[in-house]
Amino acid sequence: MPAGKTMEQNTATEPIRCKAAVCKVAGQPLEMEEVEVAPPRAHEVRIRILCTSLCHTDVTFWRMKGFPPRHPSILGHEAAGVVESVGDHVHEVAVGDTVVPVFLAQCGDCPDCLSDRSNICSGLPARPGMPRDGTTRFSFAATGEPIHNFIGVSSFTEYTVVDVAHVVRLEPGVPPEKACLLSCGVSTGIGAAWKVAAVERGSSVAVFGLGAVGLAVAQGCRMRGAKRIIGVDMNPEKRDIGKRLGITDFINPDDIGERTVSESSRR
Question: Which domain of life, per UniProt (predicted)?
Answer without folding.
Answer: Eukaryota
